[in-house]
Write a structure and sequence with these properties.
Length: 453
């Protein structure tokens, strides 16, 4: 046996639906952990289920990973490796480790019930293991096709889980798992091991719904004389009410989150830290998360998903985004003239998504007066007359509003709100001292004049 040197991890989704936030967490944990080990990540597509696997879901996985800026070493598709799986299948059959079974679901149910009534665990009794070759041929001649179970060694399997610590599973408490269906197709368990061996995977990091598969898989690694990778099983992500995430229950997909204007880096930050003993941070760069990465901080209890938390985090991320990092996105919205940088620095604390910049850009450039009906013509008249001449600077707002306050005896909200409404059409928004400068005197006078009868 050779020692594996290069650290390699894999993310192994089935293309049977759009990736949801729980899948994204597995992906991001794998990526950050791989990078923290100076290793690589491989994308393995678990598409042995021909019925449910769809090309459009494969495409969307690639799209999601590109959006998240996750670089991968390679892509492998299980559907392209059936010949290799068949070779290993035959070796395991020859060794008597895979054995043909013919029991129907009904018959299996009966066995389970019988065991339970006798106070025994409801596991498969290995009846098919003692079928003679004559009996097997007879079944086949009746048109019955066998499915194949793996003969587990009835012993304890132990491993030191990267997240859960020492684990021991007694394999005599399980039914021998079915690895091959009656139509000859492979269930996930065996191809996963063959691929992990083939791709020289050093660490398998996945959801804790796979803990019991791990016992079988460790036996398979041993049987195939391969080095056993390190395993880590993270708790699953659940909805607020504790229910499980699933592609089928319409959990929010990554593409929905992306379309809602959440930044990729927000999601990376969120998934890296949610369900750990560390606070979720608003890092602008993944490298900050990779530094000091520690899997043991992942909690054993489920991570509770909160979209509101993602939205808040996204706001924080946007507040600190430099103009350079959003220039291209702004340009796509048509925000690309010489005030674009100033504009961004002023509005970035007042948006929930980059696309919301458009609203503030329109407030500067479009006619916002039409649907506003503000009373108090006299107040606007005074404001109009007090507006300083250009050039304007950071002090203009203060000197203007002090003057208006003196002349009208208005203060606070009474003073500022009508001005804000007249100038922007909104009752909240960016700091007016700065926003005023983006508008310039011409637009401000026009907007005030509109309310003077
Ligand atoms: N396709 C499996 C899943 O999505 C992969 C599990 C594994 O990482 O081994 O659950």
């Amino acid at each position: 046996m050779t020692t594996l040197s290069q650290n390699k991890l894999r993310f192994a989704p089935s293309p049977t639906g759009y990736l949801h936030i729980g899948n994204a967490r597995t992906l991001i944990l794998n990526y950050i952990f791989a990078k923290s080990l100076q290793g690589d990540l491989i994308l393995r597509i678990d598409d042995t289920d021909k019925e449910r696997s769809k090309e459009k879901f494969y495409d969307s996985i690639i799209e999601d990973m590109t959006w998240l800026n996750i670089d991968i070493l390679d892509i492998k598709r299980q559907s392209e490796k059936t010949d290799q799986y068949k070779k290993i299948r035959d070796i395991l059959i020859d060794k008597g480790k895979l054995y043909p079974c013919f029991e129907t679901d009904e018959e299996l149910n009966k066995i389970r019930k019988l065991n339970l009534s006798r106070g025994l665990p409801p596991i498969y009794n290995r009846a098919s293991l003692s079928l003679s070759s004559k009996e097997i041929e007879e079944f086949k001649s009746q048109g019955k096709k066998p499915y194949w179970r793996y003969r587990l060694n009835h012993e304890d399997v132990t491993w030191s889980d990267l997240i859960r610590g020492n684990q021991t599973i007694d394999c005599s408490t399980f039914s021998d798992p079915v690895l091959i269906r009656a139509d000859g197709s492979f269930l996930y368990t065996l191809p996963s091991v063959i691929d992990d061996i083939d791709m020289k995977i050093t660490h398998v990091l996945r959801g804790e719904d796979h803990v019991s598969n791990t016992a079988t898989q460790i036996q398979l690694f041993d049987e195939l004389n391969a080095e056993i990778p390190s395993f880590g099983h993270h708790s699953l992500m659940v909805h607020k009410d504790g229910s499980r995430m699933s592609k089928r229950t319409g959990s929010m997909s990554l593409r929905d989150i992306r379309d809602a204007g959440i930044e990729a880096i927000t999601l990376v930050n969120y998934c890296a830290r949610i369900g750990t003993s560390d606070a979720v941070e608003a890092y602008q760069d993944t490298s900050d998360l990779i530094k000091n990465y520690d899997l043991s901080k992942i909690s054993r209890s489920p991570a509770r998903y909160s979209y509101e938390e993602i939205e808040l985090l996204n706001k924080k991320i946007l507040q600190n985004k430099t103009f350079a990092s959003v220039k291209t996105d702004l340009s796509k919205l048509g925000i690309n003239d010489e005030i674009a940088e100033k504009f961004w620095n002023i509005i970035r604390s007042n948006i929930n998504s980059i696309s919301e910049s458009q609203k503030w850009w329109d407030i500067i450039n479009k006619d916002i007066r039409s649907d506003l009906e503000l009373e108090d013509s006299n107040f606007f008249s005074i404001a109009y007359d007090s507006l300083p001449q250009e050039p304007w600077d950071d002090t203009t707002w203060l000197s203007w509003t002090s003057e208006v306050s003196k002349k009208t005896s208005r203060k606070g909200r009474e003073l500022y709100l009508p001005l804000r409404l007249a100038i922007t059409g909104e009752n909240s928004g960016p700091e007016l001292a700065s926003f005023l400068l983006l508008l310039g005197r011409g637009k401000v006078t026009e907007r005030l004049e509109f309310h003077i009868k």
